[in-house]
Amino acid sequence: MTANTIAINRRRNPFAGHAEVWLFGYGSLIYKADFPWVERRPARIRGWERRFWQGSHDHRGTPRAPGRVATLVPAQSAVCVGMAYRITPDVFDHLDYREKNGYLRFSTDMHLDNDAHAQGLVYIATEDNAAFLGPASDRDIAAQIARSAGPSGPNSEYLLRLAAALRELDAHDSHVFALEQELLRLQRQQG
Ligand code: SIN
């Protein structure tokens, strides 16, 4: 699959005709809401877990030296905590551009913090996209994050802000927190 998913996402539009759509964010969309929203609520989805397995050519790295950012991988009994936004459909033009490096819109059920359920969309970079990097040891992932930077800033900022945002949500994510510890250790070593 091509790395630029804008055209594919325009065709993946199960909420066409809806005045508002819920979007679930689990990575930078938790802490960087650079788009208008009507309502925002902590939320969780079932059956997916966060992994730093997606390459970033356009935000936290470059095509020659990609960074690593979060995607979701299927995991039967897992629960992923994030932030849900109720948005108007015109906002997807901006979001499709922002998430164009391999992320596709998927439909999901989300459980909101007021105990309501909502159907909505989530951007996931699946393993068949050209920028997918896949698993590596915590040490290797953290080292790649430590040395990468792109137009949106240092890759380390992405990881540290995500870890801080998850703590604020009272969400424990052992993958993210282990990478954060490795990154901080490397940064201390490098002085
Ligand atoms: C998300 O945050 O939901 C998608 C991945 C990202 O933009 O970091």
What would your notes on this structure say?
This protein has 191 residues and is of the alpha+beta class. It has six helices and seven strands. The chain has one domain (6-186): Gamma-glutamyl cyclotransferase-like (Hypothetical upf0131 protein ytfp). The chain has helices at residues 6-11, 28-31, 92-98, 138-147, 155-168, 174-189; strands at 21-25, 39-56, 67-87, 103-112, 117-125, 149-150, 153-154. Strand 4 and strand 5 form a beta hairpin. Helix 4 packs across helix 6 and helix 5 crosses helix 6. The longest helix is centred in the C-terminal third of the chain and has 16 residues, at 174-189. It is globular, with a radius of gyration of 16 Å. It binds succinic acid (SIN).
Would you summarize the structure shown here?
With 191 residues, this protein is of the alpha+beta class.
Residue stretches low in confidence (pLDDT < 50, at least 5 long) are none
Query: What name does CATH use for the topology?
Result: Hypothetical upf0131 protein ytfp
> What order do the helices and strands follow?
HEHEEHEEHEEHH
The CATH architecture can be named as Roll
CA distance, first residue to last residue = 40 Å
Q: Tally the helices: what do you get?
A: 6
Q: How does the overall form come out from the CA principal axes? A: globular
The CATH superfamily bears the name Gamma-glutamyl cyclotransferase-like
Strand content: 35-45%
Arrangement of strands in the largest sheet: 1-3-2-4-5
Give the tally of structural domains: 1
| Whole-number mean pLDDT | 95
Most strands sheet: 5 strands, mixed, barrel
